[in-house]
Design brief:
It holds the Pfam family Penicillinase_R. 63% of the residues lie in helices and 8% in strands. It has six helices and three strands; from the N terminus they run αβααββααα. It has a three-stranded antiparallel beta sheet with strand order 1-3-2. A hairpin with a 6-residue loop joins β2 and β3. The radius of gyration is 18 Å and the shape is elongated.
Length: 130
């Protein structure tokens, strides 16, 4: 699915992707163990999810060794960009301002994150000549 739009992962699929992003590629057993630390999950459930995710193009499987090794097909950043883009269009009519205002007003934002947001805005303004 290089360059194309990847399917939107479900919550359960995102949990598995988070494991693969954090831990790196792994076997079914490794993915199951890591996913179960966060939320108890059945072995066959993880297997079925990985099979579905493989069909959807969310994960890739290296079949050159036994057991097979799974990895996320896309980076965390690319998946996040797509999910935010979808949310931006569906919930906020394409308005980045509305999205940011809701995100910042929904909970207390730590001062260090606010500082990073300011730096990002300043950098973007410089890059766009604003």
């Amino acid at each position: 699915m290089a360059g194309g739009k990847i399917p939107r992962p479900t919550e359960a699929e995102l949990a598995i992707l988070r494991v693969l992003w954090r831990e790196g590629p792994g076997t079914l057993k490794q993915v199951h163990e890591a996913a179960s630390r966060a939320k108890p999950t059945g072995y066959t459930t993880v297997l079925k999810l990985l099979q579905i995710m493989l069909e959807k193009g969310l994960v890739a499987r290296d079949e050159s060794s036994r057991p097979h090794v799974y990895r996320a097909a896309q980076t965390e950043a690319r998946t996040q960009r797509q999910l935010v883009g979808d949310l931006l269009e569906r919930a906020f009519g394409g308005s980045a301002l509305k999205l940011v205002m809701q995100a910042l007003s929904s909970r207390k934002t730590p001062p260090e994150e606010l500082s990073q947001i300011r730096e990002l805005i300043e950098r973007m303004e410089r890059e766009q000549g604003g």
